[in-house]
Amino acid sequence: DAKTTQPTSMDCAEGRAANLPCNHSTISGNEYVYWYRQIHSQGPQYIIHGLKNNETNEMASLIITEDRKSSTLILPHATLRDTAVYYCIVRAYSGGGADGLTFGKGTHLIIQP
Amino acid sequence: DTEVTQTPKHLVMGMTNKKSLKCEQHMGHRAMYWYKQKAKKPPELMFVYSYEKLSINESVPSRFSPECPNSSLLNLHLHALQPEDSALYLCASSLTGVHEQFFGPGTRLTVL
Between chains, do B100 and A99 touch, taking CB under 8 Å as contact? Predict the structure, then answer.
């Protein structure tokens, strides 16, 4: 799986949009971009994933650049409960099988009141 | 039921003890996973089960022994652990293929 690079930490004001960048310049054509987050002392939580197109769900939006070498996770209206470590993970399509996730160091997002 | 449960929440064991961690899901997922997370580090994959068969072992020491007795249950048997094995052990499940993984809350293990 391709390597990802994320900032170590970021701050965002409550109520503002939080934009978390991820660089994955060696991504292959069959690799998806996944985002998970881990709130302190809890298990990781899936947020969103995409291949080429931008994606949106009830939690967040994922913007993938046209060359697929980077992406941005957007939390539109951050709340204090969004304080967590956010992991950007690139993962190949495994067909009918199952592959584990390779977590990088992630970005520690701190939402300020 | 859309959650993964793990028991116990906390476990303290000596280096000569034998204990087991349990993970359960009733979402019909046929892939289940064990991860280990040391303090202030990201989770690391240990094992993957697909259709109740072990498909990935990330060179985990034999003192960790996984077992998948049925499609809903995943165990991790522990024997002769070392203090450096103290960590949060996370279980996850998913549909096979490109699908999100659902994680349990973890078992915090302390080896004395």
Answer: no
